[in-house]
Design goal:
Blueprint lengths: L3 H13 L1 H15 L13 H28 L26 H17 L2 H40 L14
Helix pairs in contact: 2-4, 2-5, 3-4, 4-5
Length: 172
């Protein structure tokens, strides 16, 4: 059982980071941008896009929630840079992919774009993933190398950043 203070730390980091990216920014973009032409507006395949978007959003949410749980239990920290994990998390989806949490958030954003058939939300998804790629390459990964040393170097060499391994990494 997680201590209430730990739960509050995670709730704060989720509200300040992914919630803003997945809920606040898309809401702001779709309500303030009158030039967003929808690609499925009234088309017969709109239902298919909505179903695919819902499935992608739900899958991304499950992956994201699993990663937050692993950060709390295996990593003893949060997703927030100001309260990072104390241990290297290389279990669960992290055995296939170095950044499954961001992939989960990206899947939620892509799901929103599909659900709404929105070019603006598709652009937001592309910007989010591009920014995160640059952040991970320039800041996050060098910081993890400093914090976790050779353990992270071995992990980084074996587990891809964005495209998952088919076989789980076993720490070899």
């Amino acid at each position: 059982m997680l201590h209430p203070v730990v739960i509050l730390r995670h709730l704060l980091s989720v509200l300040l980071l992914p919630f803003v990216m997945v809920v606040v920014v898309p809401r702001w973009l779709t309500t303030t941008n009158v030039t967003d032409s929808r690609w499925m507006n009234g088309r017969p395949d709109e239902l298919l896009g909505r179903l695919a978007g819902t499935a992608l959003f739900f899958a991304g949410f499950v992956l994201f929630a699993w990663c937050v749980w692993l950060f709390a239990t295996a990593g003893k920290g949060t997703l927030a840079p100001w309260d990072p994990t104390k241990r290297l998390v290389a279990v669960g989806p992290y055995r296939h992919l170095r950044n499954p949490m961001i992939s989960g958030v990206g899947a939620m954003l892509a799901g929103e774009a599909l659900f709404h058939g929105s070019y603006v939300l598709a652009g937001w998804f592309a910007c989010f993933m591009t920014f995160n790629h640059m952040y991970f390459v320039m800041l996050e990964e060098p910081g993890l190398e400093r914090r976790f040393g050779s353990d992270y170097a071995l992990y980084k060499a074996a587990v891809p950043r964005w495209l998952p391994r088919t076989a789980p990494w076993k720490g070899e």
